[in-house]
Amino acid sequence: MSSLASEEAARLRVVPVRPVITDRPFASVARETAEIHQAFFDDIRPLGARFPAAHLREVTVVRAPDLDTRVDASGQTRVWYAIESLQQTGSFKVRGALVAIDACIQRAGSSTGLHVVAASAGNHGAAMAYAASVLGVRATIFVPKGAPAAKCERIASFGADLRFGPTPHYDDAESVAIAMAEAEGLPFISPYNDLNVIAGNGGSLGYELARVLGHVPEHVLLPFGGGGLATGVAWALADAAGESPGQVPRVWGVQSDVSPAMADSLERGEAIARFIPQGPSLADGLSGGIPEDAFARARSAIGGVMVVSEQAIAQAMHYIYRDLGLLVEGSSAVALAPLLLPSRERVASALGVRGGDLVVLLTGRNVDRSTWERAVEPFVAVTNQ
């Protein structure tokens, strides 16, 4: 285990936003950015009361005391898990799907005859299918060819029309979904670039975190794909913090080195809209590129991105099972991965950890059991020695 950990340490990549956004008055920056969506701070809380038929769960927050000293040798930083894998659809994305479809219904004046289209690596598709069934509309969901069976089965179980893209790449599934929506005059709901999805997903989560903890957490690590979750959480926490001295939330995304589109975009200084992953990934839900507007929003809100290896993601999947008894997908466990590496001091330095609360957001459980078992097998073997 130690030799593996040493090997992995060299592969942690930390890419801050420059200039570092958290060195500026964060709340005012977030409000300026959120002017593109005036209703953001008004319409998304509490979601459970707004959509009672969806049976949403408030985010579950659990202490992770064994991780405290991994982040801060002084023990002054408290680490928490924020668990969203317990939602009906197995991930946080049901929040944004409900808000976005409801917005379509409001624009149309009725749910009768309404038909929405989405593309997804899996979790957004399941969320859209479920939300559509709750709100009484039709949904067609495109997923990459060869998408995980667990995610496809969940989408189909909620009654959506499930279709496959021409290749294993998310960007290609999205292209054919957009083409269908445009050809038939149907609303296309992006998993990361729709403002109502951003508000429902990250926005409601950010407000709930502050409410459940009793204050705004100082640091958040979360999975980063297209940036919608990170943007929404950052906006909401900044709004909840207001201008209070010392209440400056630092939100960082984590990606796999198989598909580090945001990290590469930050280093290049421009969005990489089409990004072909370098191979299969345990964090399949985070694959693909990031369009310019999503890139600009995320860059204005987050502290930066950390990139970890597939091995580190597998290690995090195993650790979460041992610590919490939860099977989570790689796209969820990725948020924990930096804290398990020997180079975690770089994580603490990047985050500016000086005590307070650090939240690791676990976003989903939709992983094939066989995939999970293969991923964690090396760590199970070491643990049992």
UniProtKB/TrEMBL annotation:
Transmembrane segments: none annotated. Keywords: Lyase, Pyridoxal phosphate. Pfam families: PALP. It comes from the Bacteria. This is Pyridoxal-phosphate dependent enzyme. The keyword Zinc does not apply. The keyword Chaperone does not apply. Its cofactor is pyridoxal 5'-phosphate. InterPro entries: Ser/Thr_Dehydratase (IPR050147), TrpB-like_PALP (IPR001926), TrpB-like_PALP_sf (IPR036052). Residues 61-364 form the Tryptophan synthase beta chain-like PALP domain.
